[in-house]
TrEMBL record:
One of its GO terms (biological process) is thiamine biosynthetic process. Residues 434-444 have a biased composition (Basic and acidic residues). This is glycine oxidase. Residues 47-403 form the FAD dependent oxidoreductase domain. Pathway: Cofactor biosynthesis; thiamine diphosphate biosynthesis. GO terms for molecular function: flavin adenine dinucleotide binding; glycine oxidase activity. It comes from the Bacteria.
Length: 465
């Protein structure tokens, strides 16, 4: 079993009066949250079809299977996307950022669910998921980095988060390998880590044990829906021309999610690929790094995540990550590797002696506001579970809780209900200013009478704010 993980992330303050409709404080949308069963579909349909087999998709499938439903996962290479590159930091406190309170609430909620999630998954699969209650040490390389760290620390304090500034000497007591040029340090005792590849293996094993679950190694090319007004989504078409029918479809295809909605113009999922490269090093027994170490080196963020040592004392150490607005070309670049090693060794010079065994470039599914698209849509039979960006591993438990709620017809977790998955969809986009609409039609012409507030001329599935 994994080490016990503390759940001492404090409860965040309630949304203040007057902010109930703002991001992170929005009231639930009112859409019905009960999943459709295969009894609504032709014989041979499964209850739940999950499009996407990363950690988010398999979590959704596992929860559906635990609820006694027939579930299929459609993915050509399950776990080979962002999950394969992820380092597995469970760090809502350390990653708190200005203007992202909704993300903090969601992340803190999910971090608190990780102990029970891991215990249930380990019991169901018989495999360890590598959950380690280590805390996180954040290092500032120079004076400017320290000033930035103190501004973030003030934000954390304002939000009631457990983070303290400590001396460099105290940091070296925790981690003797901290470099001599480090200017300052911060300690977040409740930010931990898990091994994403181990979690994915456990999810795969748990599904393999259930005769109601199946993984189909094909690529989805588009979602299917019935004809007529208010028609439900009924499945997905794969790249071999095979139709996979289901009562409920969970779209968890990461950065590819938006491209699968060509026949569902009411729903917009503006996911985009944000490439990240991570490194995996082999550390001998003398490299005694025990905590997650994050840092800022001349304004550039970097992290170093040590895994549990093996029987021979060696351990994997993950270094990351670049952030590049590029398509999924899966090319490891010399510049990316150099930048990560340069900044990581500035904080922990002993990294120079470790063997570089893997460079893993993958894309994360970003959204315009860095929040996931999670929950029921206005289209019957379609649930979104995508756009988790850099936090798919952290948010797996709360994603599972949302799926549990959908299947039972219960209310979504408040932190999920506060983030409307339809917020980028046509009916919810604001109308353009009257003068903009007039200029589009010609000076002096009447503005459009459309009540949707959409710009004309672009396919609805591609409209973003």
């Amino acid at each position: 079993m994994s080490a016990a993980l503390s759940t001492d992330h404090p409860a965040l303050p309630a949304c203040p009066p007057g902010r109930e409709g703002s991001p992170g404080c929005a009231a639930p949308s009112g859409r019905t949250a009960r999943a459709r069963r295969s009894s609504d579909e032709p014989d041979g349909a499964t209850d739940v079809l999950v499009v996407g087999g990363g950690i988010v998709g398999l979590t959704a499938a596992w929860r559906a299977s635990r609820a006694g439903l027939r579930v299929s996962v459609l993915d050509p290479s399950p776990g080979d996307g962002a999950t394969h590159a992820a380092a597995g930091m469970l760090a809502p406190v350390t990653e708190a950022d200005f203007g992202e309170e909704a993300a903090l609430r969601l992340g803190a909620d999910s971090a608190g669910r990780w102990p029970a999630f891991a215990a249930e998954l380990e019991a169901d699969s018989g495999l360890d998921v590598g959950l380690r209650a280590t805390g996180t040490l954040t290092l500032a390389y120079d004076g400017d980095d320290l000033a930035l760290g103190r501004r973030v620390r003030a934000l954390q304090e304002a939000w009631g988060l457990d983070s303290t500034e400590i001396t460099v000497a105290a940091a070296r007591e925790r981690e003797p390998l901290v470099g001599q040029r480090v200017a300052g340090a911060f300690w977040a005792p409740g930010d931990h880590q898990v091994d994403p590849r181990a979690v994915h293996r456990a999810l795969t094993a748990a599904l393999a044990r259930d005769p109601r679950a199946a993984v189909v190694r094909r690529r989805a090319v588009r979602l299917l829906r019935s004809p007529g007004p208010d028609a439900p989504v009924t499945g997905a078409l794969d790249d071999a021309g095979v139709e996979h029918r289901a009562g409920t479809v969970v779209l968890a295809a990461g950065a590819d999610s938006g491209s699968l909605l060509t026949d569902v113009p009411e729903v917009c999922a503006p996911t985009r690929p944000v490439k990240g490269q991570t490194l995996r090093l082999d550390a001998p027994a003398w490299f005694t790094l025990d905590h997650v170490v994050r840092g800022v080196v001349q304004g550039r963020p970097v992290y170093v995540v040590p895994r549990t040592p093996g029987p021979d004392g060696h351990r994997e150490v993950v270094v990351g990550a670049t952030s590049e607005e590029h398509p999924d070309d899966r090319r490891a670049t010399a510049g990316g590797v150099f930048a990560l090693l340069r900044d990581a060794r500035a904080l922990l010079p002993g990294l120079d002696e470790l063997a570089l065994v893997e460079v893993t470039p993958r894309v994360r599914p970003g959204t315009p506001d860095n929040l996931p698209l999670l929950g029921p849509t206005s289209v019957p039979g379609l649930v979104l579970a995508t756009g988790h960006y850099r936090n798919g591993v952290l948010l797996a438990p709360v994603t599972g809780a949302a799926v549990d709620a959908l299947l039972a017809g219960d209310p979504l977790p408040p932190t999920v209900a506060a983030i409307d998955p339809m917020r980028f969809s046509p009916a919810l986009l604001p109308a353009p200013p009257r003068e903009v609409e007039a200029s589009r039609r010609g000076r002096g012409s009447e503005p459009s009478t459309s009540t949707t507030g959409l710009y004309l001329g672009a396919p609805a599935s591609r409209r973003t704010p």
